[in-house]
Specification:
The chain has seven helices and no strands. The chain is mainly α. The longest helix is centred in the N-terminal third of the chain and has 29 residues. The protein starts with 5 loop residues before the first helix and ends in an 8-residue tail after the last helix.
Amino acid sequence: MKDFTVIMALADFVPVILFAVAAVKLQRDLYFKMSKGAFALFSTGTMDVVFAGVSKALYKLLYAANICDFEALNNLYFPVISIGFLLSGLGLIGMLSYKQVENTAMCVVPPVLFKGTSIMVSFMIVGLAMICYSLGVLAHKLKRPSIIVLLVINFVCSLCMGYLASKDFAKAYWNWIAEGINIVGQGAFLMAAIELRKAGLSKLKL
């Protein structure tokens, strides 16, 4: 028996919304700086992350409301979000590392291939590290060190989420702790995206 409540489930949508808003802002600011291939990776990855977050929050809501125990939604979370962060990070690293020219790339959601939690957590950490590093480089070029601090907060909170993934999420207190950390982390990510826009990211010459 999982100790979920409707309020807890609704709170789980908050970090998803924060990340989604930040992702849209970054996609708009970086669109003309990225090749089609790099942008396809970044946009597909961020969409995967949002989809994974919504699926988990929806699972909790359905369970808490005594509608059904749709375990498939919950099982989607780690495979999809880990690959999503990895793709997003690769897209940003590609933008910084290679001359961005017109390319083509098929924007598709990758299939679920892995079930090992350690592999998924590794993908998440590597992907998040690439995202925070890439955006940190842009913040440095814009001479806004405060944005780097926000990205560090986001990364640390994400590492904490990775640790909490090994805990028993059937217990209410672990869910509340995880949701609080996730809201702080995604809030910092959204603030970083907003500050990057204010600093002139869309006009930055790479």
